[in-house]
Amino acid sequence: MLSYIARRLVQTVPVMLIVAVFVFLMLRIGPNDPASILAGDNANAEQVAAIRQNLGLDRPLLSQLFVWLGAILTGDFGESFFFKKQVSALILDRLEPTFMLALCTIVLAVVVAVPLGVIAAMRRGSLIDRLVMGFSVMGFSVPVFVIGYALIYVFAIKLNWLPVQGYSRLADGLPAFLRSIALPSMTLAIIYVALLARMTRTSVLEVLGEDYIRTAYSRGLTPLQVLVRHALPNAAVPIVTVIGLGVALLIGGVVVTESVFAIPGLGRLTVDAVLARDFPTIQAIILLFSFVYVMVNLVIDIAYTFFDPRIRY
Amino acid sequence: MADVLAVDRLTVALPPGSDRDHAVEDVSLKVGAGEIVCVVGESGSGKSVTAFTVMGLLPREVKPVGGSILLEGEELLSATPRRMRELRGARMAMIFQEPMTALNPVKTIGDQIEETLTVHTNMSSAERRARALETVEAVHLPDPQRILNAYPHQLSGGQRQRAMIAGALVLDPALLIADEPTTALDVTTQAQILKLVAELRARRGTGVLFITHDFGVVAEIAHRVVVMQKGRVVEQGPADDVLNRPQHSYTQMLIGAVPSLTPPARAPLDASPVVLQTKNLCKTYASGGLFQKKHVTRAAQNVTIDVRRGETVGIVGESGSGKSTVARCVARLIDPTSGEIAIDGVDYAKASERVLRPQRKRMQIVFQDPYRSLNPRRTVARSLIEAPVNFGMGEQAALSRARDLLALVGLSPSALDRYPHQFSGGQRQRICIARALMVEPEVLIADEAVSALDVSVQAQVLKLLDDVRARFHLALLFITHDLRVAAQICDRIVVMQKGTVVEQGATAEIFAAPQHPYTKALFAAAPGKHIGSKVTA
Question: Within an 8 Å CB–CB cutoff, is residue A230 touching chain B?
């Protein structure tokens, strides 16, 4: 097991390297010139050239790449072109809102979706089942920003229960934090509830048809005991897989949601950095997202062994 | 002898739109304490429905509509769900066909045995553990402590079935219902499990309702036999009477269809040329690699066999013996690791797909499960003509050949436009045989081709295989785990164990005087040796 984890960690190095080189080249191959954006509309050619030289963008591509990679190895992600701050400080500052948004979304989605899916499976073909499945089709189909504005309209503007926008840090008190994170995480959670409820239903239905469920009934267990002791532990692996995939999908959702709710997180930072062609920031964020994705996958794979004793590495 | 179970005129309705109104009609049977009653019948006879009705485990759509079921004098059909739960696991218990799927894969054997105790008693966890250990010992599982902590996938099929039995008997139920408990097991394991059931019954006085389709098993353990056909009991009585002096024509037919373990005399084929030959055929699977320790499985080792024109050679062995691996290598569905496979002296063991293609015409295969080996979305005609058209035959010519072959296998030409689901298992296997014959092969491989069929259908399909072998002078390579079938159809037999050939020779000689200890053990384990009749003679 430990050797498996070590092996997987070693494998992340080439993955990250490929991502790094790919992002670096993509940014520079395209018609992106951070210097002219920084210089503004009224600057002349000399001024733009000076800025370009200042940023090191006039140097050969390979030399830029190796300087950047070398700096990363020492933990230096460079200075943002646009914000004029260390990229690492910039990201650290924006980490909390995004992390909390992702966490609340996943927790909310799991807490709502798994019971919904289980009930739908147990009452297959009933009204509840059809409602859950109908809702899940809707959850897939409606774009995140539409859901976001609709929730703002109802809960913030009409009912006036929750703030319209903005983010209150955890350090500023739990109630304020929860009020500020409620609408964004609900918005983002809906698509995961749809996905997870569906997956849970399918997975539980499949397990309920297995022979060992019949064996469990033959021992005199109640339907609830059969569900909790036998069905759910076996249905867990596919559900956990979908939760893991969900974390990956979340990265895209976070960008939109943070824009809708004006949350100063990594999603917003990504949008700002892209608009300003802020190369060091974009590169660092994408590296971070890739790393998180690889780690989530590792955690999911390890979680399998917890749910299914047949899976051993 | 007090009756543990008394089923009286039980009728169970099927949901509207089924092929018949009642799954079970007017069924009466009794099981006394310490008595083993075998319910025998083919698929669709209602034997399993009867068992599940007693346990109260029928699917929601299937409902008992008449009669009564008394368990130790208590009516079950009118019992509340709560009372049924109290009885299940405590007074009546059940074991199932597939010990792999009937145990929860993510829970230890100990947890699953103890669960019954948790539900029905107030025992402390130490008491439960002690009782589980005691029960696991009673079913003769080796190293009981380790078994309790093991997961199902860490045990062999026989061990799993023993663990199932332990779980069923942990509270000493009055009635044990066994639904085909040995059907999925190898013959030597089956013999052990049958012995165990008989022993536990004698020691604990448990009444056993034993569902099976296998008359060999019946002959081995039954005190009384109940024969069912299409939901009705057609005959019942003491085992000796039913097996040796069957009264009802259906029982007579069923027993008559069981192939005998005594091979019929077959004309020698020494003059016939060898068509198919393997030499030192090996297939190994390697797992692991750079980081992990390499693990090599030898599925087949140095297998050397030959099959003459017009000859049937049987490869017999238990699961894991490598018999199917050999079949698949010969058909080149998998690539052998080393060795030679030749038809008419042309070695194609390592041939590339391009060289191999024309060779594929010469060897065709029929698989075990006729339900899964025909594409459900294709008409029979399209399934049949696919291969010959691929090899360049005109569509009309292929269709006319398909018509002829269907007639040969006993189906009407109207079958051409129908889909596989419109046929029974036996009919589908006939279609599969016709499909294999479409390209005029020289070698026909039958991989457990009759194992999934009911015994009466099995006899017909065996006869058909033997007929087409004779008519087309085919070299027939017949893979089976069933010694009875092998005895009846094979000219020669190859016995395999753990990937190697341990013995081969003429069928009559091997059955009369097996040499290798494994062959002897295999024969000794065959249940109900004296019953059965000759199929092809």
Answer: yes
How far is it between the farthest Cα atoms of chain B? 76
Closest Cα of chain B to A218: distance in Å? 6
Chain centroid to CA A230: 31
Q: Which helix (H) or strand (E) holds B493?
A: strand B492-497
Residues B61 and B377: their CA atoms lie apart, in Å, by: 28
Is the minimum CB–CB distance between A307 and chain B shorter than 8 Å? Answer: yes
The alpha carbon torsion through A225, A228, A234, A237 (nearest 10 deg) reads 180
Q: Give the residue on A whose Cα is nearest the Cα of B118.
A: A221
**The whole model's pTM is what?**
0.81
Query: What is the residue whose two structure tokens read 């799954």?
Result: B23
Residues from chain B contacting residue A209 (CB–CB below 8 Å): none
Instruction: Quote the pLDDT of residue B293.
Output: 61
Residue B87: its chain A contacts at CB < 8 A?
Answer: 220
Give domain A88-312's CATH architecture.
Orthogonal Bundle (1.10)
The answer for B39, left when phi > 0, alpha when psi is -120 to 50, beta otherwise, is beta
Residue B71 has a pLDDT of: 94
* Complex-level ipTM beyond the 0.85 threshold: no
How confident is the model at residue A86, as a pLDDT?
Answer: 86
Instruction: Give the 3-state secondary structure of residue B77.
Output: coil
The pLDDT value recorded for residue A143 is 84
A309–B105: do the CB atoms touch at under 8 Å?
yes
CB contact under 8 A, B119 and A233: no
HEC profile of B151-204:
CHHHCCHHHHHHHHHHHHHCCCCCEEEEECCCCCCCHHHHHHHHHHHHHHHHHH
Mean per-residue pLDDT, B455-480: 91
CB contact under 8 A, B104 and A219: no
In chain B, residues with a C-beta closer than 8 Å to the C-beta of A219 are 88-89, 93, 115-116, 119, 167
pLDDT digits (tens, 9 = 90+) for B341-400: 999 888 998 888 888 888 898 999 999 888 888 999 999 999 999 999 998 889 999 999
Mean pLDDT of chain A: 87
**The pLDDT value given to residue B289:** 54
Q: What is the pLDDT of residues A83-137, one digit of tens each?
A: 888 888 888 888 889 999 999 999 999 999 999 999 999 888 888 899 988 988 8
Residue ranges covered by each domain of chain A: 2-73, 88-312
pLDDT on residue B536: 47
Strand order in the sheet with B274-287: B295-308, B274-287, B338-343, B346-347
At B446, the amino acid letter reads A
Confidence (pLDDT) at B278: 94
Q: Does A214 touch chain B (CB under 8 A)?
A: yes
Which of B85, B103, B106 is opposite residue A308, by nearest beta carbon?
Answer: B106
**Six-digit token string for B110:** 């100990």
Contact A219 B102 (CB under 8 A): no
Q: Does any CB of chain B come closer than 8 Å to the CB of residue A219?
A: yes
Asked if B89 and A219 come within 8 Å (Cβ–Cβ), the reply is yes
Q: Do the Cβ atoms of B307 and B441 come closer than 8 Å?
A: no
Q: Please report the pLDDT score of residue B256 as a whole number.
A: 87
